[in-house]
Specification:
Blueprint: H1 2-12, H2 20-37, E1 43-45, E2 51-54, H3 56-62, H4 66-69, H5 75-78
Antiparallel strand pairs: 1-2
InterPro entries: PAS (IPR000014), PAS-like_dom_sf (IPR035965), PAS_fold (IPR013767)
Protein name: PAS domain protein
Organism: Candidatus Magnetobacterium bavaricum
Amino acid sequence: MNEYIHEFVSLLDKPGNGNSKVQAEIRQHVLADILSKVGVLVVVLDLDGNIVYFNQKSELVSGYSLEEIQGECFCKLLLKSE
């Protein structure tokens, strides 16, 4: 994990080197990889409260995969039927 964080920080420290669009895409992939592997729940919502991103820990705890829950209202997690 530390190597990902180091790479991400290195990319942030080098603005203007190379193609900025490519660097932005690399940063996005590195950050997504970090968020997918952290041991805490990470849920990203849009302005309407719909789930945009759901990491692996969130999948494990909720029982939903990202594909199942993406675009659904966050309240669906709170009101999970028995």
